Amino acid sequence: MQKELQTYVDELFTDISPTAKSEAVKNELLQRMQNKYDQYVKTGMGEETAYKKVVDSVEEISELDIDLNQIQFSVNHEHERDEIYSQKEYKSQRRSVLLFLGIGLYLLAIAAAVAIPSVGGVLLMILVAAIATSLVVLSLTIFNDKKKPTVNDKIQENQNNNRT
User: What is the pTM of this model?
Assistant: First the structure.
């Protein structure tokens, strides 16, 4: 069935000019299809049924209307993954520092109000609390872990835009 999958993918890419990027997309698609096929067969599915299910899960490349020149590919995926983890670790550390400073400033604001029992102490408390709140909000907005769109998300968005 591996040969049939290769033939199927080759047919999908017949209308696309062979460039390094299109070959990378083609090889990635083939690898994912082979992995899915192997997974289906390992779960006890028949070879023909697994092949049909894998092929049915792939839409026509021509319908995707992908500009392959805009898709970026990394040759060294391990380096890319390590870079992503180090960025996440950096963000997590920055977030922790900002939260720690914010909480510390809240405590300092209370101490200022207690130490200076006048209007000045209350004003200092409000000022320090405002700075602390800013740090906490900053840590939660700038260094949050929002899901960034993947290539598949962009392809889906492209399809939705083309249908309307």
Answer: 0.39
